[in-house]
Amino acid sequence: MIWVGQFDSKADFEKYMDQSDYRKWWAEYDEVNKEMRCQFCKELGVMSYDEDFLIMKYAPSGLRELLNLIPADTKKIIQTLADNGIENANAAIMYNCREGISAKKAENSTTMIYLGSYDFELSPEGVVGSTTAGLRYMIWIGSTDKGRDEFMEYFNQDAYLQEQQDYEEGRTQKRPNTDHRCQFCKDLGIKFYYPEFLRVRFCDIKIDPVKMIVDVINDSNILESWIEDDCLEYCVPNANCVVCYIPNGFKDKKKDQKIFILKEEYRGLLGVPKQYVEELSDYNGIKYLKTYKWS
Questions:
Q1: Which of 69, 120, 251, 275 lies closest to 188 in space, CA to CA?
Q2: Residue 50, Cα to own-chain centre: how many angstroms?
């Protein structure tokens, strides 16, 4: 069950949903108190909602950002918004069906607009907005003595892409030779990479690795504390080079790549799961750190 609405701030949205006063009253007196209910519950005509079945999302940039945070078919949501004439929204509520709120009561909301019920989808697709929900940032970092041109040869896939283009356009019947892939692709076990999702950063001197990684990811939802913890765990020293690749940058199952690297410390514990490749000791002289993702 999905509702959307527009609030002046995240604090206002949270206040609208805050049922802590009602919970305290119930815990102390073991009886209902309609006046203590949150505004959302008052509008619907229910006493409370179960937090275990609720998802709240707030998107300060507005509707386009919000669409990427709603775990349902984006195209269907867009159509429903158009049918209801909704052009602005920065907040969404998602609640499991059959968990104390009927469809009839769901329609009673006035601050929020009820869109209906939808199948839950963990990785909805359809709109590339200002958020990066679900994107995976693969990070390699280290120090290299190579110049930029020499370092970038590791990613040179011109020969393979030309062979692929010739085959696809019928200029040859020979399939592209996998031996002609760039070394980056060979190391990851893929045929080619999407250059628009490859980010390479160099520094003139060695600097704090956390800062380099934060800058190259450039996503405020990937917390700096996560990166700090990983740099400490894997003893990452100051560095002058970082590489980031986003294998699912299209948010399109037909185009996105499934690249998973099994860290060295997990070898022998689980074997090598399907679709995984084992971590190498180095990638063009630098180390694989981790893949970051937020949902």
A1: 275
A2: 26
Q: Given strand 239-245, what is the order of strands in its sheet?
A: 198-207, 239-245, 136-142, 287-293
The pLDDT tens digits for 95-114 are 999 888 999 999 999 999 99
**Which tokens belong to 205?**
């001197």
Report how far apart, in Å, the C-alpha atoms of 277 and of each of 243, 261, 270, 287 are.
Answer: 18, 5, 13, 15
Directed axis angle between helix 224-233 and helix 209-217, to 10°? 140
Residue 123 and residue 106: Cα distance in Å, rounded?
A: 25
pLDDT digits (tens, 9 = 90+) for 210-230: 999 999 998 878 999 999 999
At 294, give phi and psi (nearest 5°): -125, 150
Strands 260-262 and 239-245: unpaired
Helix (H) or strand (E) holding 56: strand 54-58
Residue position matching structure tokens 């190259």: 216
Lookup: tokens for 168 = 């696809």
Task: Show me where the domains of the chain are located.
Answer: 2-116, 136-293
Q: b vs e for 89-103, b when ≥16 Cβ sit within 10 Å of the residue's Cβ?
A: bbbbbbbbeeeebee
Scanning the structure block, which residue is given the tokens 């699912």?
248
